[in-house]
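Lab notebook page, bench 4
Experiment: in silico fold of construct C2
Operator: M.H.
Input chain length: 96 residues
Purpose: comparison with the prior construct
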Amino acid sequence: TTTFTGALRLTGMTAPFVYDGAMNGNVFLAYVEQVLVPTLSEGDVVVMDNLPAHKAAGVRDAIEAAGASLLYLPPYSPDFNPIENAFAKLKALLRA
């Protein structure tokens, strides 16, 4: 399994990360600390779905230490998550 994660801003994708394996809390925390946090600015809002890895210990602290805030989407609401559209396009390109 290869896992891709990233962030979506109004200007496009940012903080891309590819991992050879399944996502878990430790991997996601490393992504947040090493890849996502350096791209954050004071006042940014990070929105995540409810994947258990997204709620790993330390994730919220790392984001808030960068001056950003963290919000979670309601459960089972992919329609509220615009990055899913970007991921669908990326998957289609990779499969072509």
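Observations: The beta strands are 2-9, 12-20, 45-48, 69-72. Residues 2-95 form a domain with the Nucleotidyltransferase; domain 5 fold (CATH 3.30.420.10).
Next step: discuss at group meeting.
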